[in-house]
Write a structure and sequence with these properties.
This protein is an alpha/beta fold and 315 residues long. It has helices spanning 42-49, 72-78, 94-100, 114-126, 142-155, 172-189, 200-203, 223-229, 254-267, 298-314, and strands at 5-13, 17-26, 31-35, 57-62, 65-66, 79-83, 160-164, 192-196, 209-214, 217-222, 249-251, 276-279, 284-288, 291-295. The strands form three sheets. Strands 6-7-8-3-9-10 form a six-stranded mixed sheet, sandwiched between helices. InterPro entries: AAA+_ATPase, ABC_transporter-like_ATP-bd, Metal_Ion_Import_ABC, P-loop_NTPase.
Length: 315
């Protein structure tokens, strides 16, 4: 199948490369999740694809043409962009903002024809925004506002949509709604979707591919294969920030161990090395010498430990 986006021997950055020797491609109908820490090059990569940043090396082609040879109108006809921090125009309604997507094809003074208006109406229906179509943007929830900006991108009729942190500031329900919407758009409209997200544990469920920026390289592939090949992505990480805290022995699976360490670290500054906590599926067994206590909640563990510590201090 023909690749719509191709990066060949590409290095991006400024005076020094942020990401080097990228060789990857994406095709229409795919959803790709872009991951990486802040300042590591995600936005620079997006700008490089859009032709806004000069490449340090290599080539990026869009639909078979080098993006460095495309003008801004040609880029806009191929790529629609949705930013997480887009400004909200004063007094604009839902219909007004979605209609703006059409003006990449016309001068600003041009009036939309009936075909354009019907397409905009169809987009509003598709996004379940019909009841809000005449509402001002300032009156919308964060989730519906994000759908309106996606609607403007759809109105461009571009085959490729890039979204920079589209689920930022959204609650869990709206995150799921937006991610489901993006996947459905890719599959039903045969669009290529590239989106960045910090909430990658949730976002990975909706992506076909992952691009992960790490150590100035782009790790890429089928989402599940990337994760299986890089277990640090899903392995819980115990963060030791309390220098006066000395943990007990914790016998538990990785996730439960991480959560118990986190809870105890926040609640105790004492030395707990003489204690042992064992996870037993539906309870925790607290052990001190020959004393055993079965605890069915973190709060109960806290109370039992505190009682034993106080008892020991009074002896």
């Amino acid at each position: 199948m023909k690749h719509f986006l191709d990066l060949k021997n590409t290095s991006i950055g400024y005076s020094e490369p942020l990401i080097s020797d990228i060789n990857t491609s994406l095709q229409l109908g795919e959803v790709c999740l872009l991951m990486g820490n802040n300042g590591i090059g995600k936005t620079t990569l997006i700008k490089s694809i859009l032709g806004q940043n000069k490449l340090l090396k290599g080539e990026i082609s869009i639909n078979g043409k080098s993006n460095q040879k495309l003008n801004s109108n040609e880029i806009a006809s191929q790529i629609a962009i949705v930013f997480s921090k887009a400004e909200i125009p004063d007094n604009y309604t839902v219909t007004d903002l979605i209609s703006l997507g059409k003006y990449i094809h016309y001068p600003y003074y041009f009036k939309l024809n009936e075909t354009d208006k019907q397409e905009i109406s169809d987009i509003i229906t598709k996004l379940n925004l019909s009841e809000y179509q005449n509402k001002k943007l300032t009156e919308l929830s964060d989730g519906n506002l994000q759908k309106v900006f996606i609607g403007r991108a759809l109105a461009q009729n571009s085959p490729f949509i890039i979204l920079d942190e589209p689920t930022t500031h959204l609650d869990e329900e709206n995150k799921l709604m937006i991610l489901s919407l993006l996947r459905n758009l890719a599959k039903s409209e045969n669009k290529l979707i590239l989106f960045s997200s910090h909430d990658w544990r949730l976002a990975k469920e909706f992506s076909d591919k992952i691009w992960w920026i790490k150590d100035k390289k782009l790790i890429r592939g089928i989402s599940e294969e990337v994760i299986l090949s890089n277990p640090e992505l899903i392995t819980p990480k115990i963060l030791d920030f309390n220098q006066t805290f000395h943990p007990p022995e914790i016998d538990a699976p990785k996730l439960e161990k991480e959560m118990m360490f986190s809870f105890l670290q926040k609640n105790f500054s004492q030395n707990l090395r003489k204690f042992k906590l064992t996870f037993k599926n539906d309870f925790w067994e607290l052990n001190l010498d020959n004393f055993y206590d079965n605890c069915h909640s973190f709060q109960q563990i806290k109370q039992s430990l505190q009682t034993l510590i106080n008892k020991g201090n009074s002896n």
